[in-house]
Design brief:
single chain, 385 residues, alpha/beta, TIM Barrel, eight-stranded parallel β-barrel, 14 helices, 43% helix
């Protein structure tokens, strides 16, 4: 960044810090969101949390508490406290952070986020109790699970984690990404090898027992784009089985990591709508849990790329917000600089990805405008009970 850019960024940060210390820090009481929609600011400069709340939608973002956490930047903290009514830890509640040792669980990183949420009158989502994916179950943990017994280990782990956070978490991603997108079947893990489908039933039963107040969500990344047909079909079969076997699942979390080119045919859109129609017909609520836009295949030119990403977002969100069952919308971060996509899906031309509402200098982008406009256009729905 050139010196003048640094100065402008510092001025921006100082301005935001001042706003956070005055108008926005504690501007809404802890119970104020959808039920107090009449009091929200919905003007041109309205926070996204207020635009969402006016429509009965809870808006928020993922954050992380690592050594290089964006939360160490005061300007970003000000944006988060202004824009968000809910936070979700990006990794800090996953088993590879908390660990499987019942005597020495590592809750400290997640506790920092929980404390921040409480201090800024935000709600807290839990992510995730069972990431049923072999890639994220370390061999040492798998051996511990086998030695303990999968059902005993899983029930004890969920009791420990859900019990630790208690009533602060209003919604849990109980199971995450258990469907293999290539086959449409459940992933083969240390849990399903022994328990099969009952591994998922046990997870939801334990969540109901130890977090009875919390919404119980199945979260996955199936998308509306070509190549996701098998994944969508597998998720739909799983949701049907949950209902058929009376597994206590309340909602489908749709991650919404949108793809690259932004071109979606009428047939693709119709297929996505049929999928969503089938989900809500079974009585499930809907959540957008991890929204961002992978711009890997979009133009290098920033103005063109930002415009294309904004158009993709507006099209997608308009279609999603048309469902009154959708009452939560979380971005997977707000700041381009710290997006997981920078390392996970780098652009072939070497340019930085721009997947989130605020750029590297914490300036709002056309994507933020598209999100705000989609929220303004959304029909009003009843907020979460």
């Amino acid at each position: 960044m050139k010196p003048i850019g640094r100065a402008l960024a510092m001025n921006r940060r100082q301005h935001l810090i001042g706003m956070a210390g005055g108008l926005f820090m504690g501007a809404l009481p802890s119970t104020a969101w959808a039920e107090d929609a009449g009091a929200e600011n919905t003007g041109p400069d309205a926070p996204l949390r207020d635009l969402a709340s006016a429509k009965g939608i809870l808006f928020g973002s993922a954050i992380n508490a690592g050594n290089a956490s964006p939360m160490s930047d005061a300007g970003y903290r000000a944006i988060v406290t202004r824009e968000c009514a809910v936070l979700v830890p990006e990794n800090e509640m996953k088993v590879y952070v908390i660990g499987g040792d019942a005597q020495h669980p590592n809750f400290a990183p997640a506790d920092r986020i929980a404390k921040f949420a409480r201090g800024h009158h935000m709600k807290l989502r839990g992510h995730t109790l069972l990431w049923n994916h072999p890639k994220y179950i370390a061999p040492a943990l798998a051996e511990q699970v086998r030695a303990t017994g999968p059902e005993k280990w899983l029930r004890a782990y969920i009791a420990r984690v859900a019990g630790h956070f208690g009533d602060q978490i209003y919604s849990w991603d109980v199971v995450n990404e258990t469907i293999d997108p290539k086959t449409g079947e459940m992933r083969d893990t240390v849990f399903t090898q022994t328990l099969g489908f009952d591994a998922l039933r046990i997870a939801y039963d334990a969540a109901r027992e130890h977090a009875p107040h919390a919404q119980r969500v199945y979260n996955d990344f199936m998308s509306w784009e070509m190549g996701n047909e098998t994944h969508r079909a597998g998720v739909l079969r799983l949701l049907e089985r949950f209902r058929r076997e009376k597994v206590p699942v309340d909602a489908l979390g749709i991650q919404s990591h949108l793809g690259n080119d932004g071109s979606h045919s009428r047939a693709q859109r119709a297929e996505w709508q049929r999928f969503l129609d089938a989900v809500v017909a079974m009585g499930y609520r809907l959540l957008i849990t991890e929204f961002d836009i992978n711009d890997r295949e979009m133009p290098r030119d920033i103005a063109k790329r930002d415009a294309q990403a904004a158009a993709v977002a507006r099209d997608y969100l308009d279609r999603m917000f048309a469902y009154p069952q959708l009452d939560q919308f979380l971005c997977w971060g707000l700041w381009d600089k710290h997006s997981w996509l920078q390392g996970f899906a780098p652009r072939p031309d070497g340019a930085e990805q721009r997947p989130l509402p605020y750029d590297d200098d914490l300036h709002p982008k056309p994507l933020r405008t598209a999100i705000a406009d989609a929220l303004r256009a959304a029909p009003v729905r009843k907020g979460i009970a």
